[in-house]
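Okay, any thoughts on this one?
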Amino acid sequence: TLASAAFGAVYRGDLQAAGTTAHAAFDAARGQAPVTARRPLEALGDVAIYRGELKRAASLYRKAYDLSTGAGDYLDAAWDAASAAAALAYGNHLQEASRLAALAHAAATASGAPSALALAAWALGEITATTDPGQAGGTCSRQPPSPRPREAAWSPRSPASPWPPGTPGTATPPPRSAT
């Protein structure tokens, strides 16, 4: 999709192409279901944050957050709120950043995704690094709770785990019997 191309351009450092492509993706979303604009808004937010347009980035990520929560997609909502929180923290708008980090944590909890919980902790760490650098490391060193099996299709403890046996936090396969 156009939004994916915009993300690729951002990560290659081509902000001109990223901006043009993200705007085209946003334009293509007009007249579609509102949630269709979410990815283009996220791409525009990424362009803005890399350009140092922190308030604009936060505003775009907040709009994406609203679309994500409206669609019941709490995983994406967590990422959107955490991105907005980081942009605001970098701009020294710490009170609003803290509010959005709390929204990211709530959405991450609702999603049950450990990666979303980790991202919410990272956002809080970015805010805390500004006010209490010694405390900031603690927000990122906590291990998020594992999702319950009914909350996630896959978890690092599932039998089909892609992690090598013995990886911390993963299931250890039962010993093979000699038959």
Remarks:
- The longest helix spans residues 94-111.
- DSSP finds eight helices and no strands in the chain.
- Helices lie at 2-12, 15-29, 38-50, 54-70, 74-90, 94-111, 114-131, 133-141.
- Residues 146-179 have pLDDT under 50 and may be disordered.
